[in-house]
């Protein structure tokens, strides 16, 4: 696999980053995960806009000009040809003597690599996945896509140890998001997701899904979701660039709705798939599984 580091393209195994990199020492950096389908980037502008926003929020000067980001992503994809891919892109404040305050001179470290997108196994998406709930113990700026992910890692590990794929986080009695996903619920056919604020990441998949549902009978309402609403939901979905739109059919060991992926999820997934380049379909239509 060919990766990118500070202007060079080279095999991932030969990429070396200093132990004094502030990403390593402090988690002082931000990142993006940008999907591509059959070699075509999906929502690259939205991901790059969110990257610029994250950089500005943590006061790292944007190390590349607008078009240069896109050119780098395209080049990296062409050097790693194949199926569906997600580009992991990380920018840190760079290499400097270890001191908490910003270094006076340090060039940002820019690193990117490409991973296959593992679409959920069709059976898994057909069965749905399990999730658990946990208290949201993260900081107050979860709208920034920071590499500092220790609470998310611990939450996801706790989910894995309980046989679940995601932890849905609760703060002050309300759903924020998953450890690495946004959350939607459906009740009586009405689709709802928490509104954007500094407690959640403005997910690109979340936004695409809201857009594709906007002009349908399933238009999504952006309103806080209380814990009781989560537990009473007919359907719960998780969204992310690599998971796409995953139905949660067990929450804390109890069935969600009738315990099967719901009809609204199926409609929403079809709408989401049609928005993607080449309309790749992760799932066969109902009845043809
Ligand atoms: C905490 C968190 N929320 C939401 C998301 C979903 O964001 P996106 O749809 O842009 O991948 C992610 C993605 O990794 C995430 O880490």
From TrEMBL:
Enzyme class: lyase
GO biological process terms, semicolon-separated: amino acid biosynthetic process; folic acid biosynthetic process
Keywords: Folate biosynthesis, Pyridoxal phosphate
A Gene Ontology molecular function term of the record: 4-amino-4-deoxychorismate lyase activity
Domain of life (superkingdom): Bacteria
Any one Pfam family match given in the protein's UniProt record, by short name: Aminotran_4
Cofactor entry: pyridoxal 5'-phosphate
EC number: 4.1.3.38
Pathway(s) served: Cofactor biosynthesis; tetrahydrofolate biosynthesis; 4-aminobenzoate from chorismate: step 2/2
Reactions catalysed, as given in the entry: 4-amino-4-deoxychorismate = 4-aminobenzoate + pyruvate + H(+)
GO CC annotation: cytosol
Signal peptide feature range: none
The keyword Heme appears for this protein: no
Similarity annotation: Belongs to the class-IV pyridoxal-phosphate-dependent aminotransferase family.
PANTHER family linked: AMINO-ACID AMINOTRANSFERASE, D-ALANINE AMINOTRANSFERASE
Function: Involved in the biosynthesis of p-aminobenzoate (PABA), a precursor of tetrahydrofolate. Converts 4-amino-4-deoxychorismate into 4-aminobenzoate (PABA) and pyruvate.
Name assigned to this protein: Aminodeoxychorismate lyase
Organism: Thioalkalivibrio paradoxus ARh 1
């Amino acid at each position: 696999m060919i990766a990118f580091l500070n202007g060079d393209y080279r095999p991932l195994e030969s990429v070396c980053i200093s132990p004094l990199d502030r990403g390593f020492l402090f988690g002082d950096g931000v990142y993006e995960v940008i999907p591509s389908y059959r070699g075509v980037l999906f929502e690259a502008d939205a991901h790059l806009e969110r990257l610029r926003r994250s950089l500005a929020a943590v006061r790292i000067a944007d190390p590349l000009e607008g078009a240069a980001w896109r050119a780098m992503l395209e080049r990296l994809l062409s050097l790693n040809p194949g199926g569906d891919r997600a580009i992991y892109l990380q920018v840190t404040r760079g290499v400097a003597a270890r001191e908490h305050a910003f270094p006076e001179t340090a060039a940002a470290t820019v690193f990117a690599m490409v991973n296959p997108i593992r679409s959920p196994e069709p059976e898994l998406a057909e069965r749905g996945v399990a999730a658990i709930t946990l208290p949201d113990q993260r900081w107050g700026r979860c709208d920034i896509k920071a590499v500092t992910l220790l609470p998310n890692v611990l939450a996801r590990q706790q989910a894995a140890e309980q046989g679940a794929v995601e932890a849905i986080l609760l703060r002050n009695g309300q759903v924020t998001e998953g450890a690495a996903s946004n959350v939607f619920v459906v009740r009586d056919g009405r689709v709802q997701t928490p509104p954007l604020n500094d407690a959640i990441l403005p997910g690109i998949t979340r936004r695409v899904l809201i857009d594709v549902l906007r002009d349908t009978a399933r238009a999504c309402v952006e309103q806080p979701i209380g814990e009781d609403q989560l537990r009473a939901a007919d359907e719960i979905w998780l969204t992310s660039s690599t998971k796409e739109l995953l139905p949660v059919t067990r929450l804390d060991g109890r069935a969600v709705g009738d315990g099967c992926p719901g009809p609204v999820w199926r409609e929403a997934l079809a709408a989401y798939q049609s928005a993607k380049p080449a309309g790749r379909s992760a799932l066969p239509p109902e009845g043809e599984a």
